[in-house]
């Protein structure tokens, strides 16, 4: 079962990457059975906390989103996460030959590498149930660092390249990930100006 990889990536990542490489999982099935499920954690938890629990920064009053606004923002977040994983997987495949990846590993394993490397960020979504900005920032920062570490360790195993090449490959992918993040922020600003911004209510 694909979801079993989530546990393995935290307990024995190197062995898990070897297993993932051998699977050559179909990208569509990987998306449906893994990414679509785990990527839903953060939006669902964010909806619950913003619409029902409310957020308080310091000693300020409790702030909540309206039901409609919370649903809209959660759905937009979900779509952005799915697009981000796909874009990262595409970038891995696109740059594979440049860094000496074995061609037979590229089509399926590039997407798999992106999806499984994002596992810590997916699971960090549970932290949103505790509506504290500093706590959430620390959790997601730690998840991002561990996700980057997973990708760095998985590149030579999954894509079949030398570790020296994997270092350059990893730096390039980190740049792509940052571009995706900035694009997401810019897209959010545009959507907010189009009327999809948050609508607040006092708790």
TrEMBL record:
Transmembrane intervals: 31-55, 75-96, 108-128, 134-152, 173-192
Main location: membrane
Xref: Pfam families: Yip1 (PF04893)
Domain Yip1: 7-183
Coiled coil: none
Cellular component annotations (GO), alphabetically ordered: membrane
Keywords per UniProt: Membrane, Transmembrane, Transmembrane helix
Compartments (UniProt record): Membrane
Membrane topology, record value: Multi-pass membrane protein
Protein name as annotated: Uncharacterized protein DUF1282
Organism: Marinobacter persicus
Phylogenetic placement of the source organism: Bacteria, Pseudomonadati, Pseudomonadota, Gammaproteobacteria, Pseudomonadales
């Amino acid at each position: 079962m694909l979801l079993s990889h989530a546990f393995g990536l935290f307990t024995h990542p190197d062995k898990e990457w070897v297993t993932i490489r051998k699977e050559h999982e179909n990208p569509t099935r990987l998306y449906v059975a893994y990414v679509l499920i785990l990527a839903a954690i953060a939006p669902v938890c964010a909806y619950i906390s913003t619409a029902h629990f409310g957020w308080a920064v310091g000693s300020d009053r409790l702030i909540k989103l309206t039901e409609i606004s919370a649903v809209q923002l959660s759905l937009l977040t979900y779509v952005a996460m799915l697009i981000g994983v796909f874009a990262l997987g595409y970038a891995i495949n696109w740059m594979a030959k440049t860094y000496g990846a074995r061609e037979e590993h590229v089509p399926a394993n590039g997407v798999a590498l992106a999806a499984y490397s994002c596992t810590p960020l997916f699971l960090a979504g549970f932290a949103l149930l505790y509506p504290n900005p500093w706590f959430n920032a620390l959790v997601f920062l730690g998840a991002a660092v561990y996700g980057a570490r997973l990708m760095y360790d998985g590149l030579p195993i999954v894509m079949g390249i030398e570790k020296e090449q994997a270092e350059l490959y990893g730096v390039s992918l980190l740049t792509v990930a940052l571009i995706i993040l900035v694009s997401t922020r810019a897209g959010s600003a545009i959507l907010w100006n189009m009327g999809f911004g948050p609508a607040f209510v006092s708790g």
